[in-house]
Design goal:
- There is one protein chain.
- 64% of the residues lie in helices and 0% in strands.
- The chain is mainly α and 102 residues long.
- The termini are far apart.
- It has helices at residues 2-20, 25-66, 98-101.
- The protein has a domain at 10-67.
- The chain is built from three helices and no strands.
- Residues 76-102 are annotated as: Disordered.
- Residues 88-102 have a biased composition (Gly residues).
- Residues 76-86 have a biased composition (Basic and acidic residues).
Length: 102
C-alpha cells in the first residue's frame, strides 16, 4: 500500500513540475506568494472598480428619478400599422399628387 501512495505522490509532483514548473517546496512557496500578490494587486482593485461603477449608476438613476426625468425605454419601437405600406409624396393615393390636380 505504501508503494502505491508513493507512486501517486510522485505522479502528482511530476504533474506539478510539468504543468506549472513547480520543482520543490521553495518553488511552490514562490508560486503561492506570486498568486497572492496578483490577487491583491489585480483582482481586488478590479472588483472595487466594478462596485464603484455600479454604485455610481444607481446614484445617477436615483438623481434622474428625483429630478423627474423619465427612464429611457430601450424596448424596440412599435411599428406604425399602415394598410398600404409607406406613402410617399403629397396625394400619392389620388394618383398623381399636386401636379395631377392642376
Amino acid at each position: 500500500m505504501a508503494a502505491r501512495s508513493e507512486t501517486v505522490l510522485g505522479n502528482l509532483k511530476q504533474l506539478l513540475n510539468v504543468t506549472f514548473g513547480v520543482r520543490g517546496t521553495r518553488n511552490a512557496a514562490s508560486w503561492i506568494a506570486a498568486g497572492g500578490l496578483a490577487y491583491y494587486l489585480i483582482y481586488v482593485p478590479e472588483q472595487q472598480r466594478r462596485q464603484e461603477i455600479e454604485r455610481e449608476r444607481l446614484l445617477a438613476k436615483e438623481r434622474a428619478v428625483a429630478a423627474g426625468l423619465v427612464e429611457i425605454d430601450r424596448a424596440r419601437p412599435i411599428p406604425d400599422p399602415q394598410d398600404r405600406g409607406l406613402i410617399k409624396g403629397a396625394g400619392a393615393g389620388s394618383g398623381g399628387g399636386a401636379a395631377a390636380k392642376s
